[in-house]
Design goal:
10 strands, 297 residues, alpha/beta, two-stranded antiparallel sheet, globular, Rossmann fold
Length: 297
């Protein structure tokens, strides 16, 4: 594939990650087909992007003209049939292996024969996902960091089957999107989450054992480790359901207790406290996403 021929990028999933990816590609001049199970869900993603861009206009970061041009390149769609219009496809559905397998099976029946199918999974085996398609050499992991338009990193993961051309084209596209690339072989958690999840879990264990308050744990990481966010804040931002899902993948595949999910994390997810996106996780948030207090005081 010649990356210079890419004009339209199909994004499957209009949630937090899919919306962020769609915003990124539209801001870099590509037509973005944002697909989900209904046109209403996809349209809401465009509305959220419009609101985010309006804030950037208000802060003087972009012009109102640039905002309108970006929104003009964003096109909501229902289902996967219109992937036939896409030159490159990025799957960004929920971190659920059966769902991703189902989506990739269907996506390849609609996508152009030479289109690359990239998946934004943060922990699931790319080799397994590629294996359900008839074009495994054109499947690759393209793990964006959240929030996608802000974070500079993209982690590219090669399945056993991924061809050198697919890797080269995906890397080139990531660079054209303004990202810095790190590359991983297909191992559970890849590079980023293999390092991150034990850190987030250990912070949760410290809280579970009463070692310190959420505020002190996070303040310690910010000031003592020079991290921009504390681990509990970060877990809320990522989504506690996602953190738990990745922890379970790592624990199951490595059999190492350093990846075991804390009971507290499981309980918060069971309660529906998934973090910032639900208004409550380790902390309680207002309607604007501002932190109000911790959930345990």
């Amino acid at each position: 594939m010649n990356v210079k021929d890419i004009r339209t990028i199909g994004v499957i999933g209009a949630g937090q990650m899919g919306g962020g990816i769609a915003q990124l590609v539209a801001q870099h001049g590509y037509r973005a087909l944002v697909t989900d199970v209904s046109i209403e869900i996809a349209a809401r993603a465009k509305e959220k992007i419009a609101a985010l861009l309006e804030k950037q206009v208000a802060k003087g970061k972009i012009s109102s003209g640039a905002r309108e041009e970006t929104l003009g390149r964003l096109e909501p769609a229902a289902g996967l049939a219109r992937l036939l219009e896409a030159d490159f496809v990025i799957e960004a559905a929920t971190e659920n292996v059966e769902l991703k397998l189902k989506i990739l099976r269907e996506a390849e029946t609609h996508a152009k024969k030479d289109a690359i199918l990239a998946t934004n999974t943060s922990s699931i085996s790319i080799t397994r996902l590629a294996g359900v398609t008839s074009r495994p050499g054109q499947v690759i992991g393209m793990h964006f960091m959240n929030p996608v338009p802000v974070m500079k990193l993209v982690e590219i993961i090669r399945a056993v089957q991924t061809s050198p051309d697919t890797y080269a084209a995906t890397r080139e596209l990531a660079v054209l999107l303004g990202k810095t690339v790190v590359t991983s072989e297909d191992r559970p958690g890849f590079v980023i989450n293999r390092m991150l999840i034990p850190f987030l879990n250990e912070a949760c264990f410290a809280l579970q054992e009463g070692l310190a308050t959420p505020e002190d744990i996070d303040q310690g990481a910010r000031l003592g480790l020079n991290h921009p966010m504390g681990p509990l804040e970060l877990a809320d931002f990522v989504g506690l359901d996602t953190v738990l899902a990745i922890s379970e993948v790592l624990h199951r595949n490595f059999g190492d207790d350093k990846y075991r999910p804390p009971v507290l994390l499981r309980n918060l997810v069971a309660a529906g406290w998934h973090g910032k996106k639900t208004g409550r996780g380790f902390y309680v948030y207002d309607d604007k996403g501002e932190k109000l207090k911790n959930s345990f005081g």
